[in-house]
Amino acid sequence: MQEQEMEVDTTELAEAANLLQLVKQLLLEKAYDGVRTLFQSAQEAARNTRLLGHIAMDLYHDVCSVNLTDEVHSQEPGLFDCSDELLKLLAQFAPVQELMLELMERLEESSSINVFGAHLRALQVVLQRQGRDKPQAVEWSLQSVFTRLRELPLPQYLSEGYDEAQARLIEQNEQVEDLLAHYITVGLFRQPLCAEIVQQDVRTAGQIFRDCGLNRRNVFACFFIQLLGRPLALLEMSHVKEDLTRTYVQQVTDGLSRDASQCLGDPFYLLSLVEQRARWLRKLDAAKGVYEMSCRNVFLIEEKLPLHAVAMYYHSLFVGNQLPANAPRIYAPLFLFETIAYLAEVLLRQAEPPLQYCGLRLVEHLLGTLIEPVPASSLQLDVHKRFCEALCKIVGYSPQVALRQLGLHVLRQYILRFDDQGKYLILKNLLETLQHDGLMGYLGGMYKDLVDKALKESGPLPEVYSGKLFREMLLLCVCVLPHDVKSDLLLHSDRLCHALNILRYFAARDKTDVTGFWQALPDIVRRLLDPLGKALNFSMAHYKAYKERVERGQSASDDELMQRQLNMLAVNITNSGMAGGDADSRLPDIGRQEKLDVLASSITSLENLQSLYLRASEVLELSARLRRNAASADA
Predict the structure, then answer these.
(1) What is the number of other CB atoms lying within 10 angstroms of the CB of residue 370?
(2) Under a CB-based contact definition with an 8 Å cutoff, are residues 183 and 228 in contact?
(3) Do residues 184 and 253 touch, judged by C-beta distance below 8 A?
(4) Is the pLDDT of residue 566 over 80?
(5) Confidence at residue 584, expressed as pLDDT on a 0 to 100 scale
(6) Burial 410-448 (b: 16+ CB within 10 A, else e)
(7) Which of 294, 320, 449, 480 could serve as 300's disulfide partner, Cβ 3.0–4.6 Å?
(8) pLDDT tens column, 131-171
(9) Quick count: other Cβ atoms within 10 Å of Cβ 175?
(10) According to the model, what pLDDT value does residue 190 have?
(11) How far apart are CA 516 and CA 455, in angstroms?
């Protein structure tokens, strides 16, 4: 019996070897249809496919591996296509682990979409054969796919940020086209696998809790969400709300989001884990991103599920309107807002403007879903502080104009969504910590508008808009001379203008001192108005004196304040492109007329500030006189 079996095996091996040589000979003769006939003909297919198990890896190394190259694709496309079909066929019979390792290596090294697609189709077959066994091997295979996508070359401007005009043309870039082609190929690869997982990898009747360990369903869920991060996230600024055309970027993003939601079951499941990862940050190994208990929960590991990719997943769900129809409706808008704030902060802290842009749009959408004001108690969560810091950094310093504008809009809507105490605490904290004068002036104006709105409503003023709290906030808003008389007025001009306008408003609006403005005025006069008047006269005289010296061709003054003002002018000139090098302690070596133009502009700014100062002083004096007259009449 054993001898018969050995004889059969020997016979099969001989037949398999002959089949291998026949395939090679047919390919050498370019008889590609003949190769197909060997495995498609009703008469020969059954016998030949039975022999493939013996020669599958030989076929891979001797035929498929050497012919699935860009050179063969361009010079002999027929040979390439035949080898492609042969690889997908032998993937059904080759040793799973051995072929999987070969495919992983070739996927990471793929030089084009053609080579990538050929090996990806074979990997699809191997993973279907693998089933739910050895999820670690499945994870490694998927990681090789993502590695190839991540290493594709992309235009530099994607990381630097781009405007709306560039966004509309972004998919016409050759490198972006290639990236999207790879993503679309991955979409074809994952569709049958995802359908199989949803159907087969289900929770058993006796299983109460979700299995968060390393299994096929969780591995694919992480893979789909990971694909939503970089590099795909860099293309998200190309989305235009008013545009009815669905771009390839949107189609790819929507497909990945749907597949991830199917694998997760509850698309909101990750939110509790986001808070656990972003709030408490309990790491065992910070370098590897391995969190406490992560051995039992793959969703806690940064390497498997980057937080910025999770943020992009929820960006797709909410902003991209991809929330499944069967998603649970029990989550309160406040819970979603507070939890998503962690993810938005993660995106805002990324270096690439497209990811920051997505973070802003995500918060903007969640703010729109809030019905009731956010209670001030929510500010006990540290995420609000971190979120405001990241947001204000973008608003104040981002080189992207559109990003700064959207950031300012989101900041305003964010503050206004809180109750009165919450608004007050946010504004007070920001005014105490920020260094950006323009933004601080804007926030001071916001507080003035809030008080104005409260004054127009019937009933007593809320505590945060009157009395001691009002006085503390008002002094933060208007007392902006950090160095008293020697303060740099041009540097603080924006905030000084806002401060003077605030004083004019309250002097004219609150004649009965409902807010407590007039009680705070003596401190304001002492800390702002008196030193500001002296500083204006001082600066004006020095600038005019220096202008006269330049007109006469004389050198600069050695006065400390004048020298500091000249340093600022030197930087301004250098930044404007008028200077050829770094600004030092003297004005750059520019023409006399350019110096005069810069000095004239500075003097004009000071004159405008002085005019506003005089008008504010006039309004304060007039309102104070009216108050005294009214008090005398009552007496």
Answers:
(1) 16
(2) no
(3) no
(4) no
(5) 38
(6) bbeebbbbbbbbbbbbbbbebbeebebbbbbbbbbbbbb
(7) 294
(8) 888 999 999 999 999 999 999 999 999 998 888 888 888 88
(9) 12
(10) 94
(11) 13
Structure tokens at 292: 């406490």
Place of tokens 């020969």: 44
d(CA 308, CA 351): 12
Token pair of 143 as six digits = 């990681």
CA distance 100 to 278: 35
**Residue 286 in tokens:** 């910070």
Helices 493-509, 467-478: inter-axial angle, 10-degree rounding:
140
SS3 189: helix
Q: How far, CA to CA in Å, does 296 sit from each of 156, 252, 291, 448, 487?
A: 39, 31, 10, 52, 59
Average pLDDT over the chain reads 86
Q: Kindly tell me if the per-residue pLDDT of 5 is higher than 70.
A: no
Range with the poorest average pLDDT among 64-78, 127-141, 570-584: 570-584
Both structure tokens of 370: 């809030």
Tokens representing residue 144 in the block: 């090789």
Q: Quick one: average pLDDT of 398-411? A: 94
pTM of the model: 0.87
CA atoms within 13 A of residue 122's CA, in its CB half-sphere: 35
Best CA proximity match to 108, nearest among 82, 146, 159, 153: 146
Q: Give the Cα separation of 495 and 435 in Å (integer).
A: 11
Query: Which one-letter amino acid corresponds to residue 608?
Result: N
Closest by CA to 281, choosing from 383, 211, 363, 210, is: 383
Which contacts of 623-627 are long-range, i.e. CB under 8 A and separated by 24 or more positions? 623/507, 623/508, 623/511, 624/507, 624/518, 626/511, 627/511, 627/513, 627/518
Helix, strand and coil content of the chain, in percent to the nearest 5, comes to 75, 0, 25
% of the chain residues with pLDDT over 70: 87
